[in-house]
């Protein structure tokens, strides 16, 4: 068991090294040797944990997504004891945007992964599995909102859920490209939710508040 824990920890450390490269110079052309040097280990040692660049990239993407999921849960828990579906959706959507350095790096790794996955069926399986689950979760929140009288029933469906996901993905890309600022992206998320649920002032705590601290927005 200790060996398994150490093995996982080392893989996470390598993923952190990959993220540091992504944050400073991007991932185009970043080799296993580059990541090994950043992690302070030999290439042979790195290949003990990851045989290929794609294997390393996929693990890093899953690791980053897990951390992002933890941050989103923290945002939801920072809301009221029983957050509304709208608040839950806003927390999720804001968590999908590059609002600080950490989330920006995560999305850069994701972009590198998806660029390769377009031409690789094995890599593509991650998106094929993850997106439907996220869509189903969003649709469940929309149906709950409709049951509570907060949303027209005809808009509580998986198509509407997919539009929310697509809006967040598009805004995230534009923030990475500096077409939009993080503040603008959040404002547009609120506009989309207002069009869906009706006008309402954003929540004042947790994921609902726009706060700039040390270059981050949350």
From TrEMBL:
Residues 8-68 form the HTH tetR-type domain. Residues 31-50 bind DNA. Pfam families: TetR_C_6, TetR_N. The keyword Cell inner membrane does not apply. PROSITE patterns: HTH_TETR_2. InterPro entries: BetI_C, Homeodomain-like_sf, HTH_TetR, Tet_transcr_reg_TetR-rel_C_sf. Signal peptide: none annotated. GO terms for molecular function: DNA binding. It comes from the Bacteria. Keywords: DNA-binding, Repressor, Transcription, Transcription regulation. PANTHER family: HTH-TYPE TRANSCRIPTIONAL REGULATOR YJDC, TRANSCRIPTIONAL REGULATORY PROTEIN. This is HTH-type transcriptional regulator BetI. It comes from Streptomyces platensis. The lineage of its organism: Bacteria, Bacillati, Actinomycetota, Actinomycetes, Kitasatosporales.
């Amino acid at each position: 068991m200790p060996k398994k824990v150490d093995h996982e920890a080392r893989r996470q450390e390598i993923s952190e090294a990959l993220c540091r490269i992504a944050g400073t110079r991007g991932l185009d052309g970043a080799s296993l040797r580059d990541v090994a040097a950043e992690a302070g280990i030999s290439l042979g040692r790195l290949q003990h944990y990851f045989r290929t660049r794609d294997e390393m990239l996929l693990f890093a993407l899953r690791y980053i997504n897990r951390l992002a999921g933890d941050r989103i849960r923290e945002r939801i828990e920072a809301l009221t004891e029983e957050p509304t579906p709208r608040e839950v959706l806003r927390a999720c959507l804001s968590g999908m945007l590059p609002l600080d350095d950490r989330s920006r790096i995560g999305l850069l790794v994701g972009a590198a992964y998806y660029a390769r996955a377009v031409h690789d069926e094995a890599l593509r399986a991650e998106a094929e599995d993850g997106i439907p689950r996220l869509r189903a979760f969003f649709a469940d929140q929309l149906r709950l909102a409709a049951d509570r009288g907060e949303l027209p029933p005809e808009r509580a469906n998986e198509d509407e859920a997919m539009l929310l996901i697509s809006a967040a993905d598009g805004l995230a890309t534009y923030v990475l490209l500096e077409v939009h600022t993080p503040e603008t992206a959040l404002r547009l998320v609120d506009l989309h939710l207002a069009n869906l649920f009706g006008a309402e002032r954003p929540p004042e705590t947790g994921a609902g508040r726009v706060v700039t601290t040390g270059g981050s927005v949350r």
